[in-house]
Amino acid sequence: MLSTLQAPRSLSHFRTNPTLLLRYTSLKPLSSLSSQPVTHSTITDQSPSPNALPHSQILSTRHSLLSRHFTATQLADSFLARLRLTEPHLRSFLHVSDSVLAQARELDEKIQRNEELGPLAGVLVAVKDNICTAEMPSTAGSRVLEGYTPPYDATAVRKIKELGGIVVGKTNLDEFGMGSTTEGSAFQVTANPWDVSRVPGGSSGGSAAAVSARQCMVSLGSDTGGSVRQPASFCGVVGLKPTYGRVSRFGLMAYASSLDVIGCFGSSVADAGILLHAISGHDRLDATSSKREVPNLEAEHVSISSLDSKPLKGLRIGLIRETLDDGVDTGVTSAVRNAALHLEELGCSVTEVSLPSFSLGLPAYYILASSESSSNLSRYDGVRYGNQVPADELNSQYKDSRAKGFGSEVKRRILTGTYALSAGYYDAYYKRAQQVRTIIRKSFKVALDEHDILISPAAPSAAYKIGEKKNDPLAMYAGDIMTVNVNLAGLPALVLPCGFVEGGSAGLPVGLQMIGAAFDEGKLLKVGHIFEQTLQNCNFVPPLSR
């Protein structure tokens, strides 16, 4: 009987114990499943065994598929129904795959044949549209790549598919990742599920909104200066930026190559950690990917029932003083200070720490990122890459293809970067920005030598109105102050919801950013998991999804 079995505590148990897997996959024939329709709420409210990771949609789905509570086809059909219902309001997706149900049926056939399943079997994953996917368009939110379908999958996407994940579609973004609202997309503006009159953040706003609205289970984004963490804060989901080199960048369309990373969104820390574990590891196709062994990131998630009263006793937390200065909304400051108090209740020692170079990160970031984008985007000329505008003369063809293919924000950053790299200004701008980057790295190392984790707000405010900052790029750039330093230092960071401020019909979520030492994602996931499971009186499901 199913009731006599306990779910394994980690997906790794299935990999190392095929017998256990077969016990689960042979519990009940598919033909014995109820013929009654399965609603989205029926599926998403299913709770796994008490020994499974709390609130993990990934493990809950696996448990339910293996116990034959519902089929992968029913699951996929339920999420697609919710996507169709909510997409006209949110516009999270630029493309929805037409093979989702076919892949789900193949998975059901595998289960019926008692074949071994991958750890992401049946998990519906959305992918940011600057990450290449074979057989699906990949436009980077730009007219210059409109209609382009890559002949290959990005390494991260390939790994997800190999482990059984189903890519549900491609999500909206600011063009080439340059923006903080999705208003820079050439195709549409995504709305925030907490209040559709507000932005979801960016540039990975589509991926964050899709997870928040339960249009998918988890999603991939990219983070160059906060493009996973800021939208995670705005949409009330978990956003994980890994250490530079932890995840292969092969197949990620380059914006600023020394800063770009592929990151993860989930509705829980556990799901973000499982997804990161699935896509991590060295890749011979990316010379910057690390050869470090990937630890079992799933092992950091323990059952809440097994925790003592001070589960984080002895952990040293540094609250970055400069992130609570003038310019940060009082509601955000209050939420982060309350989060620090909660960490103290869990046994942490929380002290303020000063990073004097923190304010230098924003100008240094925009010089370096714009310079690299100027170089990386030079390939889109209508001849080598990108849509071509016919012209009588080659230079006119280059000019017209780029003028009509790129949006205003991309052009602004290309011009800024070209200027910073020009012969007369290289030393004054680019070289000096690199020197600032070294100072920032050293300041983080000193702080993390004395603290296990650093914390800060993920953004100076909660989500703001669509159009509020569209015509004020400097104000929009200033919103990245909390996140860009982490990219300059190449460190991992986790953002998870910690409270609310006033706004919308149910309040607006505020994200807490946790920053760790290089390749120490495991510690961030452990602390984040305990934090979210012990936080009281907070429901981070938007009204649109209830």
UniProtKB/TrEMBL annotation:
Catalytic activity reported: L-glutamyl-tRNA(Gln) + L-glutamine + ATP + H2O = L-glutaminyl-tRNA(Gln) + L-glutamate + ADP + phosphate + H(+)
Xref: SUPFAM superfamilies: Amidase signature (AS) enzymes (SSF75304)
Entry's Gene Ontology molecular function annotations: ATP binding; glutaminyl-tRNA synthase (glutamine-hydrolyzing) activity; hydrolase activity, acting on carbon-nitrogen (but not peptide) bonds, in linear amides
Keywords for the protein's UniProt record, in alphabetical order: ATP-binding, Chloroplast, Ligase, Mitochondrion, Nucleotide-binding, Plastid, Protein biosynthesis
Alphabetized InterPro entries for the sequence: Amidase (IPR000120), Amidase_CS (IPR020556), Amidase_dom (IPR023631), AS_sf (IPR036928), GatA (IPR004412)
GO CC annotation, single: chloroplast stroma
Presence of the UniProt keyword Nucleotide-binding in the record: yes
Subunit composition and interactions: Subunit of the heterotrimeric GatCAB amidotransferase (AdT) complex, composed of A, B and C subunits.
The protein, known as: Glutamyl-tRNA(Gln) amidotransferase subunit A, chloroplastic/mitochondrial
Protein source organism: Malus domestica
The gene coding this protein: GATA
